[in-house]
Amino acid sequence: MIRTDTRAEGIDLGAGEVVAAGGERLGYDSLVVATGGKPLRPPVTGLDADGVHGVHRLADGADIRAAIAAGAKRAVVLGGGYIGLEMAEVLQIRGLEVTVVLADPLPMGQLDDDMGERVCAAMCAMGIDVQPNQPVREIELGPDGAVRAVRTDEAAYDADLVVLGLGMGPETTLAREAGLALGTTGAIDVAHTQRSRSHPEVFAAGDCAQTFHRITGEAIHVALGTHANKQGRVAGSVIGGRAARFAGVLGTAMTKVGDLEVARTGLCTTQAEEAGYDYRTELIESSTRAGYFPGAAPIHVKILTERGSGLLIGAQIVGGPGSGKRIDVFATAIWAGMTAETLAGSDLSYAPPFSPTYDPVVVAARVASRIEQG
Amino acid sequence: MIRTDTRAEGIDLGAGEVVAAGGERLGYDSLVVATGGKPLRPPVTGLDADGVHGVHRLADGADIRAAIAAGAKRAVVLGGGYIGLEMAEVLQIRGLEVTVVLADPLPMGQLDDDMGERVCAAMCAMGIDVQPNQPVREIELGPDGAVRAVRTDEAAYDADLVVLGLGMGPETTLAREAGLALGTTGAIDVAHTQRSRSHPEVFAAGDCAQTFHRITGEAIHVALGTHANKQGRVAGSVIGGRAARFAGVLGTAMTKVGDLEVARTGLCTTQAEEAGYDYRTELIESSTRAGYFPGAAPIHVKILTERGSGLLIGAQIVGGPGSGKRIDVFATAIWAGMTAETLAGSDLSYAPPFSPTYDPVVVAARVASRIEQG
Q: Residues in domain Pyridine nucleotide-disulphide oxidoreductase dimerisation (chains A, B) (predicted)?
C-alpha cells in the first residue's frame, strides 16, 4: 500500500508505529527510514532572499533557469565540490559572469593539492573567477530584498544570482526526534545490513544513513545516488528474508570542468595520513589516446599504494576527454584488493583511438610497482 | 652493444651462438628471440601483384596512401578482425567504395553472434559492403598485372586496391630451423618466465612466442603490442636475475566502427563451451550517459559468468562513444577473480555526462548476480 495522502510527523519506536499527519498511527514490523539529505548551508543570514538558490530539488533547477531568463548577469557559486563546479560551468556557458567562492584553498577537496590545482587552472582558463580561502560572511541584500553581493573577509562579490553548492548532510529530524541513534557523522547509525544499531527493526538507507569506508572501515557520510540505491536494495533484501550486506564505499567521484575530466577513488593523501597508512604516491603523465592519434590529450594519474604490501589504496585522475571513467579500473582493483604490481600485469584494452599501448592506468601501476620492488 | 650492421641468419643452439650474415658467429649466455609476427595470407596466388597490400610495416601504410592518391576507387578488404575493420572505415572515409570479404559469417570473430551482428549492421550503415561466408579463391589480375578483382565461390568483387587484414601469425623461421620447440599454436613454446621450454638459455617474447590464457590456462597465440612489451620485460628481468612471470592474457581487444565502439575480454560463448565451462550469459542494454544528458547513446553489455560460482569469465561491449573502455573494468575484475555479485556491489563513478546512476557495467553484473542467487 502506498500512501501519498499524508506524511510522517513522528516515529513511536516503543509502540512500533509511525505517527502521520493528523495523528493517524501506522503500525510496522519493519520500518525503513529514507528521509534523504539536506543541503548544507553556511552560517549566515539572507539565504532565503530572492536570488539565492540551492541545487537540491528539481524546482531549484527551474528557479535558476527562470532567474537567468529574467536577466541575471553575475553569479556567485558557494562551494567547489562537483555540484559547485558543474553549476559554475553551466552558468558560465549561459553567459553569466561567474565567481566561485571557496572556504578551502582549492576546489574538489577530496583531491590532493597537486591535482586540485589542475582543476583550479581549468576553471580559470574558462574565465571562471575562483576565490579560495574565503568562508562566506554575509549575503548582502539590496533595497528590494533580493541578493546584491556575497561578502567574505577579503571582498564583496556582486551577484544577482547565488548558488549554494556546499554539499549535503543527512536529513535526520524524524529519526533524531524519535530517539534513533545517530553516528559520529550525524547520520543514522546502521549496521552493514542497514539495520539501525539502536533499533534493529528499523532500517535506514540513502543520504540519511551513515556508511563505512571500504578500505579503512571508518564511519563516513557520502550522499550519492549509487550508494543510496544499493543500500535500499540491501534493506529490502534483509527485510524480505535474504542475507545481504552493504559492502562499503570508496568515495569514488567524477566530474568535469569544460573538457577536463576529474575523478578520484579510495584514499587521498590527507585521508591516508589520517588513517595511519604508510603509503607512497606516484604521479604520471600520459596520453588519453595513442600520441599520434587526433584528439590525444594529456592525462595525469596519481595513485597511492601501501608501502610494503604494494596494495592500491587510492587514485586520482585529471585529464582530457576519455580520462575520467578510467577511475573505475582503480575502483575495481581497490575493491578486489589488488596490488599495483598485479594491476600492472593485467590485460587492459588497447586501440589507438582510445589508449596508448599501455593504458595510463597501467603506466601508473607499473611505476608504483617498480618502486615497491626497490 | 647494438649491432645494426648485420642480421641473424641462424642460431646454433648447441654452440650457443647466433650465426650472422657473412658467417660471423656471436656467442651468448642468454638469447632473446623477438622475431615478431608475420601477416597471415590466404592460399591464393596474386598476392604480390600491384594493388595488393598488407598492413604490417610502416611502408604498407605509405603504399596504401600512395595508391589512394594515385586514384584507387574500389577497395576490397580481406578479413573482419580489428585491422580489417579499421582499414575498411578509413578507406570509406577517404571516399573509396569498400567491400569487406569475410571467410566467417560475421566480423570480429571473437564476439558472440548477437554482438557481431551489431558491428556488421554498423558497417553496413556506413555504406561498407560486407560479404560474409566467402573465403577468397582468386586474386584476378588485369592485363597490366595489377589487381582487378577478388573472386570467391559466390562472386567477383572489382578492386583496384586490396588490403589483407587476416591477422598475424608468429614469425618462427629462425627458431624452427634452429630446432627450438614450437607449441601447439605454431609459436615458440615458452614457460611463464618466457624461457623456451626446449632450451632454457633461450627466451622468446612478443608475437613469435606462444602464451597462455589467464582463465583456461590453455596455450594461445595473441599478436598484440601490450603483451609483447610485458613479455620482453619479463624476459629481461629474468635474465637480469629478478624473478618475474608473465601473467597470461584475457584476449582483451577493442576497436571502433564509426561511432560504434566494440570491445571484448575473457571468454566468448564459443570459447567457454570449448573450455568446458558451465556458464550463463546476460545481455543488457543501457545508456553511455544519464538518459537525459545530451549525447547519451545506447550501450549493450554481455557478460559470461560461471554457473554456481558466479565468477566472471567474459564480457563484450558494443555501444556509442564512451562504451568501449568500460571493458577494462571487466578485464580487471576477471583478472582479480571477482564474481558478478562482488562487482555489482562495487563503487564505480557516476556523473551524468559519463554514466547513468548505475554504470552499465554494474547493471550487467547485477542482473547476472540476481540470477545466480535464484
A: 254-356
- Using only C-alpha atoms, what is the Rg of chain B? 23
How far from A349 is each of A116, B25, B251, B262, B265, CA to CA, in Å?
28, 41, 9, 11, 8
Q: A331: which chain B residues are within 8 Å (Cβ-Cβ)?
A: 346-349
Closest residue in B to A263 (Cα–Cα): B349
Q: Which residues in chain B touch residue A256, judged by CB atoms under 8 angstroms apart? A: 351, 353-354
Work out the mean pLDDT of chain A and round it to a whole number.
96
How many CB atoms lie under 10 A from the CB of residue B364? 30
Beta carbons of B186 and B173 less than 8 angstroms apart: no
Given A263, A345, A354, which is nearest B247 (Cβ)?
A345
Q: Which domains does chain B have, with CATH numbers?
A: 8-33+169-239 (3.50.50.60), 52-166 (3.50.50.60), 256-373 (3.50.50.60)
Which chain B positions have a beta carbon within 8 Å of A250's beta carbon?
Answer: 347
Contact A331 B348 (CB under 8 A): yes
> Residue B326 and residue A325: Cβ atoms within 8 Å?
yes
Q: Cα distance from B127 to chain A (closest Cα, Å)?
A: 21
Residues in chain A closer than 8 A to B247 (CB atoms) = 342, 345-346
CB B263 within 8 A of CB B327: yes
- Nearest CA distance, B342 vs chain A (angstrom): 9
Residue A158 is predicted with a pLDDT of: 98
C-alpha grid cell for residue A151?
561578502
pLDDT 10s digits, A295-331: 999 999 999 999 999 999 999 999 999 999 999 999 9
Distance of CA B65 to the CA centre of its chain: 24
Q: What local confidence, expressed as pLDDT, does residue B367 receive?
A: 95
Element containing residue A117 per DSSP (H, E): helix A113-125
Residues of chain A with pLDDT under 50: 374
- Rounded mean pLDDT for each run of 10 residues along chain B, 374 residues in total: 88 97 94 96 92 94 96 97 94 97 95 97 97 96 96 97 95 97 98 98 98 97 95 97 96 96 98 97 98 96 97 98 98 98 97 95 94 60
